[in-house]
């Protein structure tokens, strides 16, 4: 089956519907993420930062890039998470001028609990077969490749 290209000035109905569906998925995800964060007495931004740090230590500037916010905002978020014992600052072993934010053991536990409490991420996807989830993952990665996200 050949795919048909549309001109940039005209968006076909299927593309419009896909865009609306993606918007609905994103809105539902953010809503549930905020609720899950609140259950852990975190803001959404704190939860996102903690989730990032549970994967790897990151410099403050890189965190700001990933969260798409100002470095000063990241400093405030890290301060609050640090006061709760969820994050700590360490010098970067490759460049002592750079500070890394690192999730503590407790921070990794909270991040794991947060991920596990996201029903939206589990329930609808559970209705898809493994092959369908693999196809969906591939399509989403392909959509994001141009943005350097994947």
Keywords:
single chain, 150 residues, mainly alpha, Arc Repressor Mutant, subunit A, three-stranded antiparallel sheet, 7 helices, 3 strands, globular
Describe the structure.
With 150 residues, the protein is mainly alpha-helical. The chain has a domain at 15-117: Arc Repressor Mutant, subunit A. It is 64% helix and 11% strand. The protein is built from seven helices and three strands, in the order ααβααββααα. It has helices spanning 13-39, 44-55, 60-67, 71-83, 105-116, 119-126, 130-145; strands at residues 58-59, 87-92, 95-103. It has a three-stranded antiparallel β-sheet with strand order 1-3-2. Strand 2 (87-92) and strand 3 form a beta hairpin. Helix 2 crosses helix 4, helix 2 (44-55) packs across helix 5 (105-116) and helix 3 (60-67) packs across helix 4 (71-83). The longest helix has 27 residues, at 13-39. The radius of gyration is 19 Å and the shape is globular. The model has no long low-confidence stretch (mean pLDDT 88).
């Amino acid at each position: 089956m050949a795919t048909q290209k549309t001109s940039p000035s005209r968006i076909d109905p299927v593309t419009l519907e896909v865009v609306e569906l993606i918007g609905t998925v994103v809105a539902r995800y953010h809503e549930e993420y905020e609720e899950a964060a609140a259950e852990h007495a975190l803001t959404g931004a704190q939860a996102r930062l903690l989730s990032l740090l549970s994967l790897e230590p990151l410099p403050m500037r890189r965190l700001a890039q990933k969260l798409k916010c100002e470095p000063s905002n990241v400093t405030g978020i890290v301060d609050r998470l640090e006061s709760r014992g969820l994050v700590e600052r360490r010098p970067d072993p490759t460049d002592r001028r750079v500070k890394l934010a690192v999730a503590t053991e407790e921070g990794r536990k909270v991040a794991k609990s947060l991920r596990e409490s996201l029903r939206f991420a589990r329930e609808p996807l559970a209705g898809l077969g493994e092959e369908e989830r693999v196809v969906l993952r591939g399509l989403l990665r392909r959509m994001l490749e141009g943005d350097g996200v994947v």
